[in-house]
From TrEMBL, chain A:
It holds the Pfam family ABC_tran. NCBIfam families: drrA. This is ABC-type xenobiotic transporter. One of its GO terms (cellular component) is plasma membrane.
TrEMBL record, chain B:
Residues 34-271 form the ABC transmembrane type-2 domain. Keywords: Antibiotic resistance, Cell membrane, Membrane, Transmembrane, Transmembrane helix, Transport. PANTHER family: NODULATION PROTEIN J. Belongs to the ABC-2 integral membrane protein family. It comes from Streptomyces malaysiensis subsp. samsunensis. The chain crosses the membrane at residues 36-54, 74-98, 119-140, 152-172, 179-198, 246-265. This is Transport permease protein. GO terms for cellular component: ATP-binding cassette (ABC) transporter complex. GO terms for biological process: response to antibiotic. The keyword RNA-binding does not apply. Pfam families: ABC2_membrane. The lineage of its organism: Bacteria, Bacillati, Actinomycetota, Actinomycetes, Kitasatosporales.
Amino acid sequence: MTDPIVVAEGLHKSFGDTHALRGLDLSVNRGTVCGVLGPNGAGKTTAIRIFATLSDPDAGHARVAGHDVVREADKVRARIGLAGQYAAVDEKLTGRSNLQMFGRLYHLSRVEARRRADELLERFGLTEAADRPVAGYSGGMRRRLDLITCLIQRPEVLFLDEPTTGLDPRSRGEIWDSVRELVGSGTTVLLTTQYLDEADQLANDIVVIDHGQVIATGTPDELKATIGEQLQVVLEDRTALGPAATVLNDLAGTDPTTSGDDQLSVALPGGRFKLADIVRELDRAGVNAADVRLRRPTLDEVFLRLTDQKEPVG
Amino acid sequence: MTTITSPAGRLRWTFADGLTLIGRELSRLRQEPEQIIAALLFPVIMVVLFGYVFGSAIQVPGGGDYREFLMPGLFAMVTFTSVQGVMGRMAADASLGVMDRFRSMPMARLAVPFGHTGADSVVGVPLLAAMAGTGLLVGWQPHRGLLHTVEAFLLLMLMRYALSWVGVYVGLVAKNEQMVTQLATLFLPVTMLSNAFVPTDGMPTWLRFLADWNPVSALTAASRELFGNPGMAASGHNAWPMEHPVAAVLLWSAALLVVLAPLSLRAYSRRGR
């Protein structure tokens, strides 16, 4: 069942000679987390800025929560939240006054704004720090405050542009918990990230962008399946390197890569081989293996493979 | 959580959002009482520095006390500080991403510039009062009655409001606190290249031309005229703003507002960056 809440069709956007987006198509279903991955400069932030009405596309169109981001920008703004790469809160004010001020700007009454601020501070564990100026907050606390500022108006769609860049692992974990809680309460989240484990942890669907276009979409599992599995063999005896390489080549159809002088690895198409078969083949060739491992790729490997194909690193 | 639709609703929210943002600026000040103290000390330092250090060596044309001559210049100077204050706060909002949050919210477009300029005007009142108080202590006073005195202060406030839009526009376009800091160093030369501290009569002709057309001079001359302070007697001014300083200040204010308010709004709502 599909119920797209963010839809982009053929988005183009250039800044001078730089083509940030070249015909981006995207669709995010209601109530899901969509992770947008891509190398630096792939167009992730540009896309988010268009969805959040901060930037108009040169061509193509986008609808968010049922409204056109250009023609009905005000209606879109009343239904979204945006947390960017910087904590966009007033450093001089306390956490509580920030939330109250933004509450007023979302046109809550004074009483409602105060109540909503207290409620959010409580729910996201910032009550203790609430009355200190934000300038004294840690990076993680700032991001959390930034995130909950977006929640004041209970957005239908939340756009998170690299929400944990530059945070320590614990703060990242806290932001992840917050995002999971939001999704549990029905908010759709579109998040960009450079951390693939973040996408793996949070996203139902992943969209890989490079050079302003979508180059792959799917669930994390689907994407991993596309590049197959990685077979690693550690030899007991380095003289067996030659025969072992022949066995792996027969299985995979490509030459394995060696690392050190006793390790070999090669990519295998997903799901075709069983570990026991591989061990038997090695055995038949007289190769004594200390360790044989068939490993599913990480999303990092998928990502590198996908973005490599498009253009060589350089 | 209301979507702005009707023009009347828009106007109402522009006003409400502007007030919220004025409140924001004032709470920021409350967090930093040392800022207020520094701002209020500024007039005292200026009066001592110029009134006593420089004043000991400067002759007022047509006679009169130098500190009486000086105070309108200092009123003008403190009025012009509005530009750098607003400019800095605007650029800080833009560089910290706060501006992007405002833009992505269902708020009135006008609210942000109104908030900044409005807050600056609110802050301008105690600054002017502190300057006037210090002036009274060192022997300055208005000589032309209550009406002209009130007119003088209103004129200063009007010019301050108009100037704060210069800060809004430059801050929006610069988007960069460093650049704003560099621009702020122009403040002293610009305010000093005027009749605020010394009569322009003695300047070389080309410099005097610049000084006479400097809006700082118009504001200073207008204050001198309305307060009845010395320095106006120096005749032979042929620059129009020096002959009609009050009109010149009104024109400057109107021109700044008419040109910069729409430009600022365009810069604020310009999307696609």
